[in-house]
From TrEMBL:
InterPro entries: AAA+_ATPase (IPR003593), ABC_transporter-like_ATP-bd (IPR003439), ABC_transporter-like_CS (IPR017871), ABC_transpr_PhnC (IPR012693), MetN_ABC_transporter-like (IPR050086), P-loop_NTPase (IPR027417). Residues 1-21 are annotated as: Disordered. It comes from Aeromicrobium phragmitis. It holds the Pfam family ABC_tran. Residues 26-270 form the ABC transporter domain. Keywords: ATP-binding, Cell membrane, Membrane, Nucleotide-binding, Translocase, Transport. This is Phosphonate ABC transporter ATP-binding protein. GO terms for cellular component: membrane. One of its GO terms (molecular function) is ABC-type phosphonate transporter activity.
Length: 275
Protein backbone atom coordinates (compact mmCIF):
# COMPACT_ATOMS: atom_id res chain seq x y z
CA UNK A 1 0.00 0.00 0.00
CA UNK A 2 1.57 3.26 -0.97
CA UNK A 3 0.68 5.97 1.43
CA UNK A 4 -0.50 9.04 -0.40
CA UNK A 5 -0.33 11.68 2.26
CA UNK A 6 -0.35 15.27 1.21
CA UNK A 7 3.22 15.94 0.18
CA UNK A 8 5.29 16.63 3.23
CA UNK A 9 6.44 20.26 3.43
CA UNK A 10 10.01 19.36 4.19
CA UNK A 11 12.07 16.46 2.91
CA UNK A 12 10.28 14.06 5.24
CA UNK A 13 11.07 10.48 4.29
CA UNK A 14 8.27 8.32 3.00
CA UNK A 15 7.09 5.48 5.25
CA UNK A 16 9.61 2.75 5.81
CA UNK A 17 9.77 0.82 2.56
CA UNK A 18 9.89 -2.93 2.86
CA UNK A 19 11.02 -5.40 0.24
CA UNK A 20 8.13 -6.38 -1.99
CA UNK A 21 7.51 -10.00 -1.09
CA UNK A 22 5.57 -11.86 -3.78
CA UNK A 23 2.19 -10.27 -4.28
CA UNK A 24 0.80 -10.48 -0.76
CA UNK A 25 -0.76 -7.16 0.11
CA UNK A 26 -0.73 -7.82 3.82
CA UNK A 27 2.17 -9.60 5.47
CA UNK A 28 2.18 -10.07 9.20
CA UNK A 29 5.04 -11.98 10.75
CA UNK A 30 5.42 -13.23 14.30
CA UNK A 31 3.20 -10.49 15.66
CA UNK A 32 3.03 -10.09 19.39
CA UNK A 33 0.74 -7.58 21.04
CA UNK A 34 0.28 -6.64 24.65
CA UNK A 35 -1.75 -3.62 25.57
CA UNK A 36 0.31 -2.65 28.61
CA UNK A 37 3.82 -3.56 29.78
CA UNK A 38 2.65 -6.00 32.44
CA UNK A 39 -0.43 -7.21 30.60
CA UNK A 40 -0.55 -10.68 29.03
CA UNK A 41 0.10 -11.19 25.33
CA UNK A 42 -3.13 -10.80 23.38
CA UNK A 43 -1.45 -11.94 20.16
CA UNK A 44 1.41 -14.36 20.52
CA UNK A 45 3.33 -14.96 17.31
CA UNK A 46 0.69 -14.56 14.60
CA UNK A 47 1.47 -14.74 10.86
CA UNK A 48 -0.99 -13.60 8.22
CA UNK A 49 -0.84 -13.03 4.45
CA UNK A 50 -3.65 -11.55 2.41
CA UNK A 51 -3.39 -11.40 -1.35
CA UNK A 52 -5.23 -9.13 -3.73
CA UNK A 53 -8.56 -10.54 -4.79
CA UNK A 54 -8.75 -12.72 -1.73
CA UNK A 55 -11.18 -12.79 1.18
CA UNK A 56 -9.64 -14.19 4.33
CA UNK A 57 -11.85 -15.14 7.26
CA UNK A 58 -10.55 -14.69 10.76
CA UNK A 59 -12.26 -17.23 12.95
CA UNK A 60 -12.13 -17.45 16.71
CA UNK A 61 -14.06 -17.24 19.94
CA UNK A 62 -14.66 -13.93 21.64
CA UNK A 63 -11.40 -12.68 23.15
CA UNK A 64 -9.17 -14.72 20.83
CA UNK A 65 -7.62 -11.57 19.36
CA UNK A 66 -9.49 -11.05 16.07
CA UNK A 67 -10.16 -7.36 16.53
CA UNK A 68 -6.67 -6.75 17.83
CA UNK A 69 -5.17 -8.38 14.74
CA UNK A 70 -7.29 -6.12 12.53
CA UNK A 71 -6.37 -3.06 14.57
CA UNK A 72 -2.69 -3.84 14.15
CA UNK A 73 -3.14 -3.12 10.43
CA UNK A 74 -4.24 0.44 11.07
CA UNK A 75 -1.94 1.17 13.99
CA UNK A 76 -4.71 1.01 16.58
CA UNK A 77 -3.09 -1.87 18.43
CA UNK A 78 0.43 -1.67 19.86
CA UNK A 79 2.89 -3.80 17.89
CA UNK A 80 4.98 -5.21 20.71
CA UNK A 81 7.17 -7.22 18.36
CA UNK A 82 7.08 -8.69 14.88
CA UNK A 83 6.21 -6.98 11.61
CA UNK A 84 2.97 -5.73 10.15
CA UNK A 85 3.12 -4.70 6.51
CA UNK A 86 0.37 -3.38 4.30
CA UNK A 87 1.64 -2.98 0.76
CA UNK A 88 5.06 -1.41 1.14
CA UNK A 89 4.25 0.21 4.45
CA UNK A 90 5.69 -1.00 7.73
CA UNK A 91 2.90 -0.05 10.12
CA UNK A 92 5.07 -0.08 13.24
CA UNK A 93 7.34 2.58 11.76
CA UNK A 94 4.69 5.17 10.94
CA UNK A 95 4.43 8.66 12.29
CA UNK A 96 1.02 10.24 12.97
CA UNK A 97 0.71 11.87 9.55
CA UNK A 98 1.60 8.62 7.82
CA UNK A 99 -0.81 6.69 9.99
CA UNK A 100 -3.63 9.00 8.94
CA UNK A 101 -2.72 8.45 5.31
CA UNK A 102 -2.67 4.70 5.84
CA UNK A 103 -6.07 4.75 7.56
CA UNK A 104 -7.53 6.73 4.68
CA UNK A 105 -6.73 3.78 2.45
CA UNK A 106 -8.30 1.13 4.65
CA UNK A 107 -12.06 0.70 4.39
CA UNK A 108 -13.58 -0.48 7.63
CA UNK A 109 -16.86 -2.20 8.26
CA UNK A 110 -18.14 -2.82 11.78
CA UNK A 111 -20.77 -4.93 13.48
CA UNK A 112 -22.88 -1.89 14.35
CA UNK A 113 -22.58 -0.25 10.89
CA UNK A 114 -21.55 3.09 12.45
CA UNK A 115 -23.71 5.22 10.16
CA UNK A 116 -24.99 8.66 11.04
CA UNK A 117 -28.63 7.76 11.41
CA UNK A 118 -30.31 11.09 10.76
CA UNK A 119 -28.31 11.78 7.62
CA UNK A 120 -29.29 10.44 4.22
CA UNK A 121 -27.86 7.23 2.89
CA UNK A 122 -26.12 9.20 0.14
CA UNK A 123 -24.46 11.58 2.62
CA UNK A 124 -23.27 8.65 4.70
CA UNK A 125 -21.58 7.16 1.65
CA UNK A 126 -20.08 10.54 0.77
CA UNK A 127 -18.44 10.75 4.19
CA UNK A 128 -16.13 7.97 2.96
CA UNK A 129 -14.44 10.54 0.75
CA UNK A 130 -13.70 12.80 3.71
CA UNK A 131 -10.70 10.64 4.54
CA UNK A 132 -9.02 12.16 1.52
CA UNK A 133 -10.22 15.71 2.04
CA UNK A 134 -9.69 18.40 4.60
CA UNK A 135 -12.15 18.98 7.44
CA UNK A 136 -13.60 21.90 5.45
CA UNK A 137 -15.65 19.43 3.51
CA UNK A 138 -17.48 18.43 6.65
CA UNK A 139 -19.86 21.29 5.98
CA UNK A 140 -21.34 19.22 3.22
CA UNK A 141 -19.95 20.58 0.02
CA UNK A 142 -19.42 17.45 -1.97
CA UNK A 143 -18.51 17.75 -5.59
CA UNK A 144 -20.77 16.46 -8.34
CA UNK A 145 -18.25 13.78 -9.27
CA UNK A 146 -18.26 12.47 -5.74
CA UNK A 147 -22.05 12.34 -5.65
CA UNK A 148 -22.08 10.44 -8.92
CA UNK A 149 -19.55 7.97 -7.59
CA UNK A 150 -21.52 7.54 -4.33
CA UNK A 151 -24.68 6.79 -6.32
CA UNK A 152 -22.82 4.27 -8.45
CA UNK A 153 -21.56 2.55 -5.32
CA UNK A 154 -25.06 2.43 -3.86
CA UNK A 155 -26.17 0.70 -7.04
CA UNK A 156 -23.19 -1.62 -6.73
CA UNK A 157 -24.36 -2.74 -3.28
CA UNK A 158 -27.96 -3.01 -4.44
CA UNK A 159 -29.64 -0.11 -2.68
CA UNK A 160 -29.43 2.78 -5.11
CA UNK A 161 -33.15 3.40 -4.62
CA UNK A 162 -32.55 4.23 -0.94
CA UNK A 163 -30.09 7.08 -1.57
CA UNK A 164 -32.29 9.84 -0.19
CA UNK A 165 -33.71 8.04 2.80
CA UNK A 166 -32.50 8.55 6.34
CA UNK A 167 -29.91 5.91 7.16
CA UNK A 168 -31.74 4.98 10.37
CA UNK A 169 -34.86 4.01 8.45
CA UNK A 170 -33.06 1.13 6.71
CA UNK A 171 -32.91 -2.50 7.82
CA UNK A 172 -29.68 -3.85 9.30
CA UNK A 173 -28.69 -5.57 6.08
CA UNK A 174 -29.30 -2.39 4.10
CA UNK A 175 -27.34 -0.31 6.61
CA UNK A 176 -24.40 -2.66 6.37
CA UNK A 177 -24.46 -2.29 2.60
CA UNK A 178 -24.37 1.48 3.03
CA UNK A 179 -21.32 1.01 5.25
CA UNK A 180 -19.68 -1.09 2.55
CA UNK A 181 -20.42 1.57 -0.08
CA UNK A 182 -18.93 4.15 2.28
CA UNK A 183 -15.79 2.03 2.61
CA UNK A 184 -15.55 1.73 -1.19
CA UNK A 185 -15.88 5.50 -1.46
CA UNK A 186 -12.41 5.67 0.10
CA UNK A 187 -10.95 3.75 -2.86
CA UNK A 188 -9.51 1.42 -0.27
CA UNK A 189 -6.42 -0.70 -0.79
CA UNK A 190 -7.66 -3.03 1.92
CA UNK A 191 -11.01 -3.73 3.58
CA UNK A 192 -11.26 -4.79 7.22
CA UNK A 193 -14.68 -6.08 8.23
CA UNK A 194 -14.86 -6.79 11.96
CA UNK A 195 -17.85 -9.06 12.67
CA UNK A 196 -19.85 -7.43 9.87
CA UNK A 197 -22.74 -9.88 10.12
CA UNK A 198 -22.94 -10.42 13.88
CA UNK A 199 -26.07 -8.26 14.05
CA UNK A 200 -27.74 -9.65 10.93
CA UNK A 201 -30.08 -12.56 10.31
CA UNK A 202 -28.77 -15.53 8.29
CA UNK A 203 -30.21 -14.37 5.00
CA UNK A 204 -28.74 -10.89 5.26
CA UNK A 205 -25.47 -12.33 6.52
CA UNK A 206 -25.15 -14.23 3.25
CA UNK A 207 -25.97 -11.18 1.17
CA UNK A 208 -23.36 -9.08 2.96
CA UNK A 209 -20.64 -11.73 2.86
CA UNK A 210 -21.28 -12.49 -0.81
CA UNK A 211 -21.01 -8.80 -1.50
CA UNK A 212 -17.69 -8.50 0.33
CA UNK A 213 -16.32 -11.49 -1.51
CA UNK A 214 -17.40 -10.16 -4.88
CA UNK A 215 -15.64 -6.90 -4.06
CA UNK A 216 -12.47 -8.84 -3.29
CA UNK A 217 -12.71 -10.74 -6.54
CA UNK A 218 -13.93 -8.06 -8.89
CA UNK A 219 -12.07 -5.02 -7.58
CA UNK A 220 -9.06 -7.03 -6.43
CA UNK A 221 -9.25 -5.47 -2.99
CA UNK A 222 -8.01 -7.80 -0.26
CA UNK A 223 -10.68 -8.33 2.40
CA UNK A 224 -10.12 -9.51 5.96
CA UNK A 225 -13.35 -10.46 7.69
CA UNK A 226 -13.75 -11.68 11.24
CA UNK A 227 -16.53 -14.13 11.94
CA UNK A 228 -17.38 -16.35 14.82
CA UNK A 229 -19.78 -18.63 12.96
CA UNK A 230 -17.90 -21.50 11.39
CA UNK A 231 -20.30 -22.37 8.53
CA UNK A 232 -20.26 -18.74 7.34
CA UNK A 233 -16.47 -18.80 7.18
CA UNK A 234 -16.50 -22.08 5.27
CA UNK A 235 -19.02 -20.75 2.77
CA UNK A 236 -17.68 -17.26 2.22
CA UNK A 237 -13.90 -17.17 2.23
CA UNK A 238 -10.87 -18.16 0.20
CA UNK A 239 -8.75 -18.84 3.26
CA UNK A 240 -9.38 -19.21 6.95
CA UNK A 241 -7.16 -18.29 9.86
CA UNK A 242 -8.37 -19.73 13.15
CA UNK A 243 -7.19 -17.96 16.29
CA UNK A 244 -7.30 -19.17 19.83
CA UNK A 245 -5.83 -17.28 22.76
CA UNK A 246 -3.88 -15.10 20.35
CA UNK A 247 -2.28 -17.93 18.45
CA UNK A 248 -2.91 -19.26 14.98
CA UNK A 249 -4.37 -22.69 15.52
CA UNK A 250 -5.49 -23.45 11.97
CA UNK A 251 -4.58 -21.78 8.71
CA UNK A 252 -5.39 -22.95 5.22
CA UNK A 253 -7.37 -22.72 2.03
CA UNK A 254 -11.05 -22.90 2.80
CA UNK A 255 -11.56 -25.58 0.16
CA UNK A 256 -9.22 -27.83 2.12
CA UNK A 257 -10.82 -27.24 5.52
CA UNK A 258 -14.00 -28.51 7.12
CA UNK A 259 -15.85 -28.29 10.43
CA UNK A 260 -13.75 -30.99 12.06
CA UNK A 261 -10.40 -29.47 11.08
CA UNK A 262 -11.60 -26.16 12.52
CA UNK A 263 -13.14 -27.61 15.68
CA UNK A 264 -10.05 -26.92 17.84
CA UNK A 265 -10.64 -23.21 17.33
CA UNK A 266 -13.73 -23.59 19.49
CA UNK A 267 -12.66 -25.96 22.18
CA UNK A 268 -15.76 -26.08 24.39
CA UNK A 269 -13.92 -27.27 27.48
CA UNK A 270 -11.58 -24.35 27.10
CA UNK A 271 -14.40 -21.81 27.07
CA UNK A 272 -15.83 -23.34 30.22
CA UNK A 273 -12.45 -22.91 31.87
CA UNK A 274 -12.66 -19.22 31.15
CA UNK A 275 -15.93 -19.10 33.09
N1 LIG B 1 -7.66 -1.71 24.22
C1 LIG B 1 -7.43 -2.80 24.96
N2 LIG B 1 -6.78 -2.72 26.13
C2 LIG B 1 -6.54 -3.82 26.89
N3 LIG B 1 -6.92 -5.05 26.55
C3 LIG B 1 -7.59 -5.21 25.39
C4 LIG B 1 -7.88 -4.10 24.54
N4 LIG B 1 -8.55 -4.56 23.44
C5 LIG B 1 -8.66 -5.89 23.62
N5 LIG B 1 -8.09 -6.29 24.77
C6 LIG B 1 -8.02 -7.67 25.27
O1 LIG B 1 -7.41 -8.46 24.25
C7 LIG B 1 -8.02 -9.74 24.17
C8 LIG B 1 -8.47 -9.98 22.74
O2 LIG B 1 -9.50 -9.05 22.43
P1 LIG B 1 -10.03 -8.82 20.97
O3 LIG B 1 -8.90 -8.55 20.08
O4 LIG B 1 -11.10 -7.79 21.06
O5 LIG B 1 -10.63 -10.26 20.62
P2 LIG B 1 -11.86 -10.67 19.69
O6 LIG B 1 -12.09 -9.61 18.69
O7 LIG B 1 -11.46 -11.98 19.11
O8 LIG B 1 -13.03 -10.83 20.62
C9 LIG B 1 -9.14 -9.75 25.17
O9 LIG B 1 -8.69 -10.39 26.34
C10 LIG B 1 -9.39 -8.29 25.44
O10 LIG B 1 -9.86 -8.09 26.73
MG1 LIG C 1 -13.73 -8.51 18.21
Amino acid sequence: MSVVANPAPTGTASPVAAPRDEDAHVRIRDLRVRYAPDAPLVLDGVDLDIHRGEMVALLGASGSGKSTLMKSLTGFAPITSGTVRAGDVDVAGLRPRELRALRAQVGQVFQQFNLIGRLSVLTNVLTGSLHHAGPVNLLGTFRAGERRRALELLDRVGIGHKANEEARSLSGGQQQRVAIARALMQNPRLILADEPVASLDPKMSRVVLQLLRSIAREEGIPVLVSLHVLPLALEHSDRIVGLRHGRTLVEGRTAELDASSLAPVYDIEDEEDEG
